[in-house]
Amino acid sequence: MSGEPHAVSEVDAVDWRMIAWRQTALHCVEEYLEANGKTNHEILKALDAFNELWPESASEHEAPAEPPILALAHLMIKDEGFFNEALEDAEVSNDDLDLTFSAQVEVSADIAGSLKQVSLSSGEDLVGQVFKVLMQELRRKWRKPRDC
Q1: C-alpha 64: how far from its chain's center?
Q2: Which of 58, 56, 64 lies closest to 25 in space, CA to CA?
Q3: Ramachandran quadrant class, 15 (left: phi over 0; alpha: psi -120 to 50; beta: rest)
């Protein structure tokens, strides 16, 4: 026994960045649906589609392979991590907040603002819009150091 409680390894195994991305997106989607007067049935249907496309974990999905949206999110989160590492290594001296603090793409992406600009109601379309804005934000972040 290593001296650590078993729960330590369980907590360390949790993909906290994925949870942050997914929960932020889910919250924005729920608010969007409610603000646009969707019925409870429409909201539940859209959220079911969202959860099917982007499950909380790969183990929730019955297929042996990782769902495509989950795989894409993992790649994007990995890219966010590379950006943060590059930012740390570069020690950029700049007042630009994008280059001062670690990137949290799900926070800076303005998912809610993006959803307000479209008229979507299906879970599939909403997940697509969420990933579109997350990708745009990730690309914007990567362009920043080149513009300095």
Answers
A1: 23
A2: 56
A3: beta
